[in-house]
Amino acid sequence: MGRIVVTEFVSLDGVVEDPGGSEDYKYGGWSFEFSRGEEGDKFKLDEALGADALLLGRVTYQGFADAWPSRDGEFADKFNNMPKYVVSSTLKDPEWTNSTVLEGDLAEAVAKLRDEHDGDVVVHGSPQLVQALVDQDLVDELRLMVFPVVLGTGKQLFGATADKKTLRLTDSRIVGDGVAILVYEPVR
Questions:
Q1: What span, in angstroms and rounded, lies between the C-alpha atoms of 117 and 171?
Q2: What is the pLDDT of residue 21?
Q3: Are the beta carbons of 165 and 134 closer than 8 angstroms?
């Protein structure tokens, strides 16, 4: 049975918007102002290579689909070849290799993904999707790479939830220029 793993680049004030600089956000590319160091880079590579599939919201999916097919290397090869699932009510014919649009009830779609995959189904970015997954208790692990910056504005990782969500810290470390890697599991 697969697991739903959310991984995020996040500022100290909870902003996840445009860490890579492709979305025309006021502070786009803010995560590139900091080195993750060798350990942080290895964490992200291991995460990508260990993923069985990607689950993405439409905006993140389109950003990835624009960027990754033209890139080379181990990371890019993994992203380009693995199954990708996009949650969208507007995207109908995704062009990126091995992509499928999920329709209908989110909890049912996630249950099916967990049954179809033995490994991690990883969610990058996609704040609206992540909020829905957290709200419906569909996240098995939350990996935050917290950068030492306060942005003051932008899309937040967490919005309103129907109930309190308690998490347990399972791993933490500081890498590179003071970037904190925090790994949480829900307490159920």
A1: 24
A2: 87
A3: yes
Residue 120 has pLDDT above 90, yes or no: yes
Is residue 83 within 8 A of residue 54, CB to CB? The reply is yes
User: Could you write out the DSSP letters of every residue in 69-122?
Assistant: GG--SHHHHHHHHS-EEEE-SS--S--STTEEEE-S-HHHHHHHHHHH-SSEEE
The pLDDT tens digits for 155-168 are 999 888 889 999 99
* The predicted structure's pLDDT at residue 103: 86
Distance between CA 49 and CA 35 in Å, rounded? 21
Q: Rounded to an integer, what distance in angstroms lies between the CA atom of residue 10 and that of residue 104?
A: 29
Give, in degrees to the nearest 5, the angle at Cα 49 between 167 and 55: 55
Overall pTM surpassing 0.85 (yes/no): yes
Taking alpha carbons only, the member of 150, 102, 95, 149 closest to residue 123 is 102
Both structure tokens of 145:
């790479």
